[in-house]
Amino acid sequence: MTFFRNFNYRNWYIFSLLLLSLLPVTSKSSNDHTADQILGRWLFPAKGSSVEVYRNGDRYFARIADVSTTGSQVFGLEKDQLLMRDLVFDGKGWTGGELIHPKTGHHFGVELKMVDAQTMTATVYKGYRWLHKEFVLTRPTKV
């Protein structure tokens, strides 16, 4: 009973501020979990070659994981070659990144968005976002 007797509005106010100060810490970890759903292997539209998305700090990168004969000949793909870099999760998708064309070395803007747990769209653009090309990447099926 002494706890309730000594518990006044000032203590309640301090207790409330303490609880509110902890909320941003817990929401960030939830945001990180959502951002990490992109990690892993993704197949290109032709399903012959794949990329592996990985995280370094708060940024996401993608490198070539498997290369098909067509991917090697037509696009100049090489295993472990960096394809995308510096993507940052903004709460809705991964933006601000660059795609490095494997054959020419040209740099393009790239944004990634999850459609569902197995599908992701990559929007690649040069300069203006309304001049873009979209690619659909899928997760490989587990055997």
From TrEMBL:
Keywords: Signal. Pfam families: DUF2147. Residues 1-27 form the signal peptide. This is DUF2147 domain-containing protein. Residues 40-139 form the DUF2147 domain. The keyword Nucleotidyltransferase does not apply. It comes from Spirosoma profusum. The keyword Thylakoid does not apply. InterPro entries: DUF2147.
